[in-house]
């Protein structure tokens, strides 16, 4: 990893999303030629995966109703760039506030999201922050990966280099899900530069100490039960990507319907449980923009390697020092699993906000709630 003091001389290249029309037509043709899985007769719910009738309707809309060029134009409303860090291209949007003294704020997405996750919050956040939105190495326009070893620590170090390269010496970080892990790690790596960490969709784990379970509230017990159900019944994607990312990548990279199902299932399971369908929680065109980014960049397999790296990183399982950077945790009550005592064990939690709606993709589901919570947290840091 380069020394941040030498970053000024490093190249930052302008970038625009510009997918060839031949690729757009190829997507439509592949969707039209889908060989559909028959499933099991009489099973039409989500218990065994994405229902065929639902997926067929969504795929048909992706082919003939969704306007990629309109989505592409919206993405290009934001100034975007690419720079190489540690041998890997890193794609990011950089939207400066009209206030020259605004605090820089780095936004980090989760899997299977992308920088598309933040399109609804960039403009409102830019009123108070210089907003930097990254694409995680191996995902979307930061992919494919050029080398192995891109675990959470390496990504966090790369993002600290990026912020230094942009001239941001003191800044905040916001991340959800896997992005929350990267955000917290940045606080550990650069506590002199990261002024605060805001996270949502945080996953917390109890230790083996029985005392961890004493005095839990009813709501916290529900969250632990939810975590256990996830580990018992919803970890298939994680196990596959943690062990054989290339094998699953071949299928996802060749079949747009396979890629669509792989992603939309997570948006069903990780969004507000009160919503019946993924597009009830997240705008359907935005959801398909996110899937399209994975498809057009051929980064399904590349993104899966992030799980492999974490599963094979000894540092991920080693005891870590408690973070010292002020941390805010936003909890979506219908779906999150975070327990405050476990979060405080690992992080310097100074703000804990609970929302009665939303899920892991809060920036897409409840952008106003997230924007206001982020704004208040960093305003309180003064």
Explain how this protein is built.
There is one protein chain. With 382 residues, this protein is an alpha/beta fold. It has a single domain (4-34, 47-381), classed as Alpha/Beta hydrolase fold, catalytic domain (Rossmann fold). The protein contains 17 helices and 9 strands. The chain has a 9-stranded mixed sheet with strand order 1-2-3-5-4-6-7-8-9, with helices on both faces. α1 packs antiparallel against α2 (52-64) and α9 (245-254) crosses α10 (256-270). It is globular, with a radius of gyration of 20 Å. Mean pLDDT is 95; it is low at 1-9.
Short description:
The protein is α/β, with parallel strands linked by helices and 382 residues long. It has helices at 21-32, 52-64, 68-75, 122-125, 152-165, 178-189, 218-233, 236-243, 245-254, 256-270, 278-281, 284-297, 300-311, 314-317, 340-346, 362-365, 367-381, and strands spanning 12-15, 80-85, 88-95, 103-108, 129-134, 171-176, 194-200, 326-332, 348-355. Helices cover 45% and strands 15% of the residues.
């Amino acid at each position: 990893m380069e020394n941040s003091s030498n970053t000024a001389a490093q190249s930052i290249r302008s970038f625009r999303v510009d997918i060839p029309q031949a690729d757009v037509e190829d997507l439509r043709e592949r969707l039209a030629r889908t060989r559909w899985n028959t499933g099991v007769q009489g099973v039409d719910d989500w218990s065994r995966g994405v229902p065929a009738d639902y997926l067929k309707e969504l795929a048909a809309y992706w082919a003939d109703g969704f306007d990629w060029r309109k989505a592409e134009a919206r993405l290009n409303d934001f100034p975007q760039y690419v720079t190489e860090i540690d041998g890997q291209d890193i794609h990011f949007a950089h939207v400066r506030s009209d206030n020259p003294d605004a605090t820089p704020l780095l936004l980090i997405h989760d899997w299977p999201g992308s920088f598309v996750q933040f399109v609804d919050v960039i403009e409102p956040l830019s009123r108070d922050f210089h907003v930097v939105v990254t694409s995680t190495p191996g995902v979307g326009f930061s992919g494919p990966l050029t080398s192995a070893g891109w675990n959470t620590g390496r990504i966090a170090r790369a993002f600290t280099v990026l912020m230094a390269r942009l001239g941001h010496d003191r800044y905040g970080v916001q991340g959800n899900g896997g992005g929350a892990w990267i955000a917290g790690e940045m606080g550990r790596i650069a506590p002199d530069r990261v002024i605060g960490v805001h996270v949502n969709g945080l996953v917390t784990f109890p230790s083996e100490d029985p005392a961890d379970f004493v005095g839990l509230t009813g709501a916290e017990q529900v969250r632990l039960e939810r975590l256990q159900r996830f580990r018992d019944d919803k970890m298939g994607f994680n196990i596959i990507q943690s062990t054989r990312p290339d094998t699953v990548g071949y299928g996802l990279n060749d079949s747009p319907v396979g890629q669509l199902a792989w992603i939309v299932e997570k948006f069903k399971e990780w969004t507000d449980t009160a919503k019946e369908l993924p597009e009830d929680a997240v705008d359907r065109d935005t959801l398909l923009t996110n899937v399209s980014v994975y498809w057009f960049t051929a980064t399904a397999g590349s993104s899966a390697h992030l799980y492999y790296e974490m599963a094979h990183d000894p540092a991920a399982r080693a005891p870590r020092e408690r973070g010292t950077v002020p941390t805010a945790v936003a909890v979506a009550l219908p779906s999150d699993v975070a327990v405050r005592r476990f979060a405080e064990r690992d992080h310097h939690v100074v703000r804990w906000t609970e929302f009665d709606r939303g899920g892991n993709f809060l920036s897409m589901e409840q952008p106003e709630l997230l924007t206001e919570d982020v704004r208040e947290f960093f305003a309180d840091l003064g």
